[in-house]
Amino acid sequence: MKNKIVAGNWKMNKTFSEAEELLVAVAEGIDDMPLNTEIIICPPFLYLEMAADVSEESKFSVGAQNVSSEKSGAFTGEISAEMIKSAGVDFCIVGHSERRAHFQESDEVLATKVLRLLEKDIVPIFCIGEQLSEREKGEEFKIVENQLTKGLFYLDKDAFERIIIAYEPVWAIGTGLTATPEQAQKMHAHIRQLIEKQYSVEVAYNTYILYGGSCNSKNALELFSCQDVDGGLIGGASLKAEEFIEIINAAETSVKSN
Ligand code: PGA
Hints:
By secondary structure, this protein is of the alpha/beta class. The chain is built from twelve helices and eight strands. The chain has helices at 16-31, 48-56, 81-86, 97-102, 107-119, 132-136, 140-151, 157-160, 181-198, 201-206, 220-224, 241-256, and strands at residues 5-9, 38-42, 60-64, 91-94, 123-128, 164-167, 208-212, 231-234. It has an eight-stranded parallel β-barrel, surrounded by five helices. The longest helix has 18 residues, at 181-198. 2-phosphoglycolic acid binds next to strand 8.
């Protein structure tokens, strides 16, 4: 089993001082852990520079939660890939279901965002996942395939190899309704098969596919122990240092015990 990635998506939470406190608490908490897990913290834009500063002396990397599909210029309120990179950021979430739903981000816009990030050497963490109504109709595999095809499969092999995928069933996000390990494994294996068909066995094996959706310290080990679950994208449970560190511990344990 390969090493895991645990990414924290803070969403629109924390004031400046609370953000600093949480960053320092996580940094201190993981300081003396012999870590094989890659840790990525994705705070709001405003705190990226501070997070990057703290990360320099710590074992985590920093990611943004969003990026503009435009390069630069007269786009009031937008933040470009170049700006993110200049703040010391190496990762960026793209296509989170909250952005798809509340900000009408289409597959086409998301595909452009992925390109903007790759141009600046930022790793996209590309989110996919079905709604509850789609799962109830048995359409979850088709929906995810469509999101992958439109959002990523136009990339050539070299570009695709730089992508992290996060499978986040929309019905599990922030609801406390986690996918069962069986549901997660089934979808992750399906995603890997699609990558294999599009690229190769090797690319499929090497691609990181994270699970997201009410993942916490209680269910993380079971989820991370699934063969095709390479870690997690953690929302609510990343807002408390202790809880987040327990999830990191679960990632470490899941690799050691396999
Ligand atoms: P949650 O969010 O862990 O709070 O369900 C996950 C996410 O939206 O990335």
